[in-house]
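Appendix C: a fully annotated inverse folding record. The material below is reproduced so that readers can follow the format used throughout the book. The structure is listed first as tokens, followed by the designed sequence.
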């Protein structure tokens, strides 16, 4: 299998931010209680508009949540997982195009690429919350990403760490690789074609062999 495109979730796959977001959304949930256990995990993969509409319907609360999130995101320092740069470079060298498919907004992506300008060079497309009307686990985001390359989703590989994202990739019809960065490996088994601990563990050829 030689993929038409590689489609990457962002947080928990490319950048090591899941612990930071757990802290942020836990603080927001303390300030504006939703009554939902493990709230930060529950909303993973959802776009901000969906989170606000579903859990914080009051307009004043929404403004407060957005302000709290922006303050913390603006101060966030991004770090790329070990092995990501080498794997992305291998994709580029082999002529396999790539896209980021994230529920984050464009403002966050601007901050990310200002901090890590080289990262942007690896991706032909960056799809944000503005490019989909339905959050993961709906497959729309990955269907849209495949369409950007003129590819059938079955010809694409999706890299995800969240349950919602894995479901989105599978329902889109793509091959799906689960990263055991956010959830335990055992909990990911059966939810993806393969599970890996990190990009340090694979090469492109070993990945393609495992996906046959």
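Designed amino acids, in order:
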């Amino acid at each position: 299998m030689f993929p038409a495109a590689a489609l990457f979730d962002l947080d928990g796959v490319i950048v090591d931010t899941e612990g930071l977001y757990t802290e942020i959304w836990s603080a927001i949930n303390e300030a504006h209680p939703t009554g939902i256990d493990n709230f930060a995990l529950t909303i993973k993969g959802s776009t901000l508009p969906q989170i606000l509409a579903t859990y914080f319907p009051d307009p004043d609360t929404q403004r407060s949540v957005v302000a709290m999130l922006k303050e913390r995101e603006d101060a966030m320092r991004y770090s790329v997982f070990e092995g990501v740069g080498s794997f992305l470079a291998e994709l580029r060298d082999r002529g396999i195009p790539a896209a980021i498919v994230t529920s984050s907004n464009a403002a966050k992506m601007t901050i990310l690429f200002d901090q890590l300008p080289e990262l942007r060079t690896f991706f032909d497309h960056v799809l944000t919350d503005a490019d989909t009307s339905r959050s993961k686990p709906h497959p729309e985001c990955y269907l849209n990403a495949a369409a950007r390359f003129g590819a059938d989703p079955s010809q694409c590989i999706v890299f995800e760490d969240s349950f919602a994202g894995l479901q989105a990739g599978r329902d889109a019809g793509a091959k799906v690789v689960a990263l055991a960065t956010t959830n335990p490996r055992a909990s990911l088994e059966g939810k993806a074609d393969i599970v890996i601990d990190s990009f340090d563990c694979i090469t492109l050829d070993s990945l393609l062999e495992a996906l046959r």
